[in-house]
Design goal:
The chain has 284 residues and is of the alpha/beta class. Helices cover 26% and strands 30% of the residues. The protein has one domain: 4-Layer Sandwich (Purple Acid Phosphatase, chain A, domain 2). Helix 2 runs parallel beside helix 3. The N and C termini lie far apart (69 Å).
């Protein structure tokens, strides 16, 4: 009986610890804290941001990538979804939070829900954010969940006051892709957002879902697919607008300045597989 009671106490303690994972998230014009955490100032420009997606069950690779990311001390980390392989698997979430703990201890950690976060009982518990936005000086970060509906995503984007601002969009599903998901109806349905991005002068869009790296340019908009966070890699076929592609585990380091966005795609071995700069207008 005593042993059973001890096991029960330990299990309850574990659930309590898991339910109070400390994560700082930029939200609208401020920030939210999920779990216990000390106050951290909102970041200012220039800043370093890390963007990646699709870690899923590739824990060894994910851990190596996080170690590399940590060397850059990013102010913001964006995970583009498929953080775990099964959204209702509590153990996978525990491992994910353990691996990302070094980054989350000081950086704002921005989640985007992927298809593997479904069923999203734990995503709701730990993040509860689907379509949301955050502002850092002249930049407005727009985080979308197309599973809420493409039209709802469009309406959400249009509801944000972008006057004099530079919008950057993040979502799990790509708008264009030379990977196997590029031919799916889900991706084709999202392509109506391209005209919205053009209208609102979005300079760059980040997505994942296909497990590779791609830089695609369409009508002056740079589309980045960064799905190399640890999940098994996918083949890549040439498509219109594809400038650089690589089938490798990686992340993207983004340096934000008032007049430009500097990006480097960095492989799990620390090699730079792509480097480019996007010029943006400055309202200052």
């Amino acid at each position: 009986m005593k042993r059973s009671a001890l096991v029960l106490i330990l299990l309850i303690s574990g659930v309590c610890l898991f339910s109070q994972i400390a994560t700082k998230i930029l939200f609208e014009d401020g920030w939210k804290i999920f779990g216990e955490e000390n106050f951290v100032e909102k970041p200012s420009l220039p800043l370093t941001m890390i963007v990646y997606g699709d870690s899923r069950w590739g824990n060894q690779t994910h851990r190596k990538l996080v170690e590399l990311m940590d060397e850059y001390r990013p102010a913001i980390v964006v995970h583009l979804g498929d953080m775990v392989n099964s959204g209702d698997n509590e153990k996978e979430w525990e491992i994910f939070f353990e691996i990302t703990a070094p980054l989350r201890s000081y950086a704002f950690f921005q989640p985007v829900k992927g298809n593997h976060e479904k069923p999203d009982v734990y995503y709701r518990r730990h993040f509860g954010l689907y379509n949301y936005w955050a502002k850092v000086e002249d930049y407005v970060f727009i985080f979308l969940d197309p599973d809420t509906g493409v039209k709802r995503c469009e309406n959400f984007i249009r509801s944000i006051d972008l006057s004099g601002k530079i919008p950057i969009v993040f979502l799990h599903y790509p708008i264009f892709s030379g990977g196997p998901h590029g031919r799916t109806q889900t991706v084709k349905n999202l392509q109506v957002l391209h005209d919205v991005f053009r209208e609102l002068n979005v300079p760059i869009v980040f997505s994942s879902h296909d497990h590779n790296y791609q830089r695609i340019v369409k009508d002056g908009i740079t589309y980045i697919v960064t799905g190399g966070g640890g999940a098994p890699l996918y083949r890549l076929d040439p498509i219109e607008g594809l400038l650089v592609g690589a089938v490798v585990h990686h992340f993207v380091k983004v340096n934000l300045h008032r007049d430009r966005i500097e990006c480097e795609a960095i492989s799990v071995n620390g090699e730079i597989i792509d480097s480019f700069t996007v010029s943006v207008r400055s309202s200052s």
